[in-house]
Each structure stands twice: as C-alpha cells, then as structure tokens.
C-alpha cells in the first residue's frame, strides 16, 4: 500500500509510545488482515482465528486498567482503532464490542467478583463478550425496550429479545440490559444459560466479515448477584456506548485513509489517454478533497483523545467525531471508488467494501440523526428528541 502524504505533519503531534502502538497495529493488519479480507468479506466469515493474536497485540480492553487489561491511553486506543478499521470495519467492531462495550460495562459497573471472574479472560481473548441493548422495535429509543427482568425469589428471570448484537453467537458472556420494577438494569448472562439463544443475522450487504445476531431470552433464570450492582438507569449503557462511539470517531478515519490510499495508488499507475489518471485535474481535485477531510478528521479525533486522557471529554464532543468523521469517511470511500472506475466494484480494491461497511457504522452507536440532535440540544439548549 502506498504511503499516504501527511500534509500537516500529524505524526509530530504524537508521542513515541503512541506512534509505536499505531505502527504495531498497522503491521499486524498489513500481514494478517489485508491478504485475506476480500475472501472473508465475500464468504461472510469473521476470522475467529485472529482473536488470540488480537489479545497478544494488546487491543482487547486496551484502554482499561487492572484485571489483566493493557491500560493504554485513550489516544493509543484511538490510533489502534484507526489501524484496525483500515483493514476492515468488522475487525475494529470486534475490538469495540469486546472492549468498549462488554468489558467496559463490567469494569465500570461490575462487582469486584465479576471483574475478577471475567475481565482477565476477556483481555486474554479466551472469553468473548457481547452487549445486548438494541431490540427489534427499540433502536434509537432504548427507553422503550421491552426485555424485562423480574424477581422470582432470590433469582432473576429474563424474557425478551435483542437485535443486531455483535458477537453474540460466539460469546460466552452477554451483558443484557432489561427493564425491572426498579428501572433499567444490566445483567451478566452466561450464554450457555437455558433459554438464551443467539442467531446470526444473514444475509447482509454490509459488515460481512463480522457477526451480528438476534438474541432470544426465554425464561432465562439468573442468580441474585447476576446484575451489575452499580448500573441503574439508561445512563449506564449510554456511558458504554460513548466509549464505543469514541473509538468509532477514530476508526472510520482508517477506512477513509485506506480508500484514499487505494485510489491514489491506482491513479498513479492506471494510464488513460497516454497519461496516469492522477495527471488529470478532476482526479487531483478528488484526491485533494479526500486528503483535506482525512487531515481534519484526524485532528478532531486527536483533540477528543487528549480531552479523554485529561478526563474532560463531554458526550456532545464525542458526537462531533461520530457524526462528522463518519460522514466524511463515507464520502471519501464513495469518491475513491469513482477514481477506480469499473475496477472499483472488484473485491480486489477496498473502497466499495469500506463504503458498504460504513453504512452500518453510521447507523450503530447512534444514527446521524441522533447525533445531530445531541449537538442541536447542546447548541440551543432545547432537546428535540420528543
């Protein structure tokens, strides 16, 4: 892959440790993902054989401290997400579901016993987690969820359904959010519990090298201590979503950069009318526009990372990156495909795959519309959700 010009010397804004993390993940993607991703996508296969290697790479729960977690900075996690998504959104999504959603929920809201039981194995890749919030009829409005957990003696009994739940069919532990008589609570549900069933959703036109599932919960009986003790109300799952949204703000830059690099390399070698396609003014305009948007997106993501490491990151600021960077990434992937001409629909080239994946990324963890309203409420002081 051709080196992408760094127009603003972005690397100078990073520390040696941050560059080392980025370069290590980039090398992993180059060696272990790029040669096979087109086949995995075509065959709709998530490469589970990479899970131990991702654990060894130190990207599972990498931003969490203790319990066997790597304890890296927010910026380092963001850079890793960017490199993973340059390979494929499905790979970054796996790391996000495992670390930013499932592990983050346990790390933030779990008991000490729950943390000790699950987090070291999840960081080591021997236990996979999933995060069950979205329902068939409850996506952008999780307050309307109908999954319910009732007390029955000392036990909890869960009934309901979840949809578009990443990794559920290969997970050993599920973080399930449910209504109770006391409001929304989070529950740790071992996936071998009777009444728990996860079914992969197929066929898909996007995120094909990834796993999303329907979950059915039928009289799932759990012990009294199965709930996350400090998770009460929707603020708890929303905090986990913000962890994932932060990673998305970085990750989509990787998809955009890979699309741009593919188009740039192609335009320099593809000849039409006795000259490289890159020598035409319209092509150069496309390349410049893409490069400018990537540079801006990187600066936004880095600013958020610095704020997060300083403990000052606000939810509306995450929406800036999730909305703006994802919107830019989709436009770049689509424009990159045009430079490839007819060859752009071939799986040999990445932009069309990235564009298809990004349609999912722009939808999950808050649609464009939801993040627009988050920012609108912050700007005006008026909530327009209801």
Automatic annotation (TrEMBL):
Keywords of the record: FAD, Flavoprotein, Oxidoreductase, Transit peptide
Domain Acyl-CoA dehydrogenase/oxidase N-terminal, chain residue ranges per copy: 15-125
Keyword Oxidoreductase (UniProt): yes
Cofactors, names only: FAD
Root EC class: oxidoreductase
Pathway given in the UniProt record: Amino-acid metabolism; tryptophan metabolism; Amino-acid metabolism; lysine degradation
Enzyme Commission number(s) of this protein: 1.3.8.6
Highest taxon of the lineage: Bacteria
Domain Acyl-CoA oxidase/dehydrogenase middle residue range list: 130-220
Pfam families cross-referenced by the UniProt entry: Acyl-CoA_dh_1, Acyl-CoA_dh_M, Acyl-CoA_dh_N
Ranges where the Acyl-CoA dehydrogenase/oxidase C-terminal domain occurs: 232-379
SUPFAM superfamilies to which the protein is assigned, alphabetical: Acyl-CoA dehydrogenase C-terminal domain-like, Acyl-CoA dehydrogenase NM domain-like
Catalytic reaction(s) noted: glutaryl-CoA + oxidized [electron-transfer flavoprotein] + 2 H(+) = (2E)-butenoyl-CoA + reduced [electron-transfer flavoprotein] + CO2
Family: Belongs to the acyl-CoA dehydrogenase family.
Name of the protein in question: glutaryl-CoA dehydrogenase (ETF)
């Amino acid at each position: 892959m051709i080196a992408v010009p760094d127009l603003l010397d972005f690397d100078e804004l990073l520390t040696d440790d941050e560059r080392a993390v980025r370069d290590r993940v980039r090398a992993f993607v180059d060696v272990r993902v790029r040669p096979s991703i087109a086949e995995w996508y075509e065959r709709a296969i998530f490469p589970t054989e990479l899970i131990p290697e991702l654990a060894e790479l130190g990207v599972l729960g990498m931003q969490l401290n203790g319990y066997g977690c790597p304890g890296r900075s927010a910026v380092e996690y963001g850079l890793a997400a960017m490199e993973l998504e340059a390979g494929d959104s499905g790979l970054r999504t796996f790391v996000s579901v495992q670390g930013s959603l499932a592990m983050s929920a346990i790390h933030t809201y779990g008991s000490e016993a729950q943390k000790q039981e699950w987090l070291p194995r999840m960081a080591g890749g021997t236990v996979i987690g999933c995060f069950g919030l979205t329902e068939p009829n409850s996506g952008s409005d999780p307050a309307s969820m109908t999954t319910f957990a009732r007390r029955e003696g000392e036990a909890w009994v869960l009934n309901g359904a979840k949809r578009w739940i990443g990794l559920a069919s290969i997970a050993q532990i599920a973080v399930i959010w449910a209504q109770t008589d006391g409001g929304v609570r989070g529950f740790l549900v071992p996936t071998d519990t009777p009444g728990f069933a996860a079914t992969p959703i197929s066929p898909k036109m996007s995120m094909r090298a990834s796993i999303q599932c329907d979950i059915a919960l039928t009289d799932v009986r759990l012990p009294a201590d199965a709930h996350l003790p400090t998770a009460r109300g929707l603020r708890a799952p929303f905090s986990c979503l913000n962890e994932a949204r932060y990673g998305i703000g970085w990750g989509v830059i990787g998809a955009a950069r890979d699309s741009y690099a593919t188009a740039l390399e192609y335009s320099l070698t593809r000849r039409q009318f006795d000259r490289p396609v890159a020598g035409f003014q319209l092509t150069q305009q496309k390349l410049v526009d893409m490069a400018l948007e990537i540079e801006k997106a990187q600066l936004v993501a880095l600013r958020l990372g610095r704020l997060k490491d300083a403990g000052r990151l606000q939810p509306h600021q995450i929406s800036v990156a999730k909305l703006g960077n994802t919107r830019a990434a989709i436009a770049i992937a689509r424009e990159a495909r045009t430079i490839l001409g007819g060859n752009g629909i071939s799986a040999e080239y990445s932009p069309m795959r990235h564009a298809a994946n990004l349609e999912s990324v722009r939808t999950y963890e808050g649609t464009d519309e939801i993040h627009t309203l988050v920012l609108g409420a912050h700007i005006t002081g008026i909530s327009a959700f209801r």
